[in-house]
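Message: I would love a firmer grasp of how sequence relates to backbone shape in proteins. Thank you; the sequence and its tokens follow:
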Amino acid sequence: MTQDEGAIAILGGTGDQGLGLALRFAQAARRVVIGSRKPERAIQAAEQVLAQVRDANVVGLGNEEACQQAPIVILSVPFEHCASTLKGIKQSLSAGQIVVSMAVPLAVAVGDAATRTLGIWQGSCAELLASLAPKGVEVVSAFQNVSAHRLQRLEDPVECDVIVSGAKAPREQVMALCPLVPGLRAVNGGPLSNARVVEDITALLIGLNIRYKTPEGLGFRLTGLPSSD
């Protein structure tokens, strides 16, 4: 199947954060392909996007078909489903594609609190996915700390920094997605190993959201960055 070079596939685009990204990228006039294990759920999510972004170029498909249509595939699924999702699409990925890891190993996966993370042998969810990805497919870490609520509130900028980690060329391609969303700023997070630090920030933000009673979700900004970065 021929890829659309401007398309962005979001597997798990039926969830809150994935749907928020789908809405924002559609609003920026990019083609969005929403994927789900159950194609009917992906179709429903695409209809939700169309209801809010009337001229959206969006479609809902099964995961395998969705990831064949875009050079960048964002995995927006809970940590406990990341490995199985990647294994399920492995035969549909091809060299040169980028898989974006945005999951966090929150302890809720084992019945503990969302304010703590699990230790992973590979160091982070992103590195776990990199160990499972087919040869030639790059894994980049991004978008973990962007509020789903703020993403879905299309009338307002999101106001959050996105630390993007991975190999240089694919990292830069994912960083280029951030300015499509008003208020998002891409920050060069260096190698993929730094994802383990970024993923832990999510648990910290969840705790802050609870303590400060901010259901809309906190974001964070780094100060002193050169404007050209």
In short: The chain has one domain: 8-212.
